[in-house]
Amino acid sequence: MKMTGFANFLCFALAGLLACAEARAQTVEEFYRGNVLEIYNGFTVGSGYDAHMRLVARHIGKHIPGHPTVVPLNMEGAGSLKLTNWLYNVAPQDGTVIGVIARGIPFEPLVGIAPPNTLLFEATKFTWIGSTTDEVSVCAAWERAGIDEFSDLYEKELIVGGVGAGGDPDVFPRILDGVLGAKFRIVSGYPGGADLLFAMERGEVDGRCGWSWASLIATNQRWLDEGKVKILIQLSRAPHPDLTAMGVPWIMDLAKTEEDRQLFRMIFARGAVGRPFIAPPNLPADRAAALRQAFEDTMRDPEFLADAHQARLEIVPMTGEEAQQLIAEVYATPRPIVDRARAMLRPNF
Questions:
Q1: Contact 326, 103 (CB under 8 A)
Q2: At residue 178, does pLDDT exceed 60?
Q3: 268-284: per-residue pLDDT in tens?
Q4: Are 120 and 89 in contact (CB under 8 A)?
């Protein structure tokens, strides 16, 4: 019997629905068995984010039902904004792709100064898988600057390097200047953290404000031992015990009002999701739960922790549920506080 065009259309539509229903009916184990999980990093090979991504990629597959093949990949560009937009708008929403992005990117739509037409995502709608570390950042001054403690910055200016709008080394000095009156001059435009450190050694800048403490001690412990850098303040939602033992002041203790504290909690929340692993929105609930559980199990895996120790990577994990809750909390910050922060972050000094 000859079928009409409309009948053909119905057949194809029904076949598609049946295929979708069959795919949806798969268990998590059935879906991932023989499949590939791609983990992207938004920065270059060899960066700190890349190191964390590849460490997780080596271990997470054995904790996912069905044990998919895990492939680490890089999609660098615009400080991981390229990857963030791709994950939100283009990547498959089936649990086969996750990514590691800059910790500051999710907060850009709220308090950033990037053009709105470049921020093609809603941070609260991503599927948050977790974070490998809670980053405590510091401000540090090279010995030649003659600045030994944070209070010196009320009288003397520190020239610090930056990497561009939205980066911690550009955001944090502006906030410290706007709220506390600390004096900074930012020389921005360095391609990345390594370039910024070379600039400190060469004398182009005298410090860095927005420097991961874990990264500093992993790669530049010698500078501390030799007294070449002075740690001025710790920037985080919770203090680091090692820095506190060294007598380094904590930003929250310097807040003068409750509004200041709310602003600091909003700005420094990015450290709590120090190396954020996210997946596209709208993942099937069972696969999202499986990926989150696999991430948690990986964070407790003795082989993973041994590899992290050997690589000198600090692991202070946050679960996907905790990260999702934190992002929602930050986006619920009262509008006057958000507007105050945005005014400080305008590139006008």
A1: no
A2: yes
A3: 999 999 999 999 999 99
A4: yes
Torsion angle defined by CA atoms of residues 181, 184, 213 and 324, in that order, rounded to the nearest 10 degrees: 60
Distance CA 45, CA 78 (A): 15
Question: Per the structure block, which two tokens stand in for 337?
Answer: 């506080």
User: Domains of the chain by range and CATH?
Assistant: 31-134+273-338 (3.40.190.150), 137-270 (3.40.190.10)
Please tell me the distance from the alpha carbon of residue 58 to that of residue 63, in angstroms, as a whole number: 11
Asked if residue 48 lies in contact with residue 215, where contact means CB atoms within 8 angstroms, the answer is yes
pLDDT for residue 79: 78
Cα 313 from Cα 324, distance rounded (Å) = 24
- Beta carbons of 286 and 258 less than 8 angstroms apart: no
Written as six digits, the tokens of 197 are 């450190």
**CA distances in angstroms from 178 to 3, 117, 249, 334, listed in the order given:** 72, 27, 18, 18
Specify the pLDDT at position 267: 95
The two counts, helices (H) then strands (E), for the chain are 16, 11
Alpha carbons 124 and 88: distance in angstroms, whole number? 11
pLDDT for res 312: 87
Sheet architecture: strand order including 127-131:
69-74, 36-41, 97-100, 276-279, 127-131, 318-319
What confidence score (pLDDT) does residue 349 get? 44
Element (H, E) at 162: none
Is residue 319 classed as helix, strand or coil in its secondary structure? strand
Condensed to tens digits (0 to 9), the pLDDT of residues 93-144 reads 999 999 999 898 999 999 987 788 899 999 999 999 999 999 999 999 999 9
Cα–Cα distance between 34 and 218 in angstroms, integer?
A: 37
Q: What is the pLDDT of residue 154?
A: 97
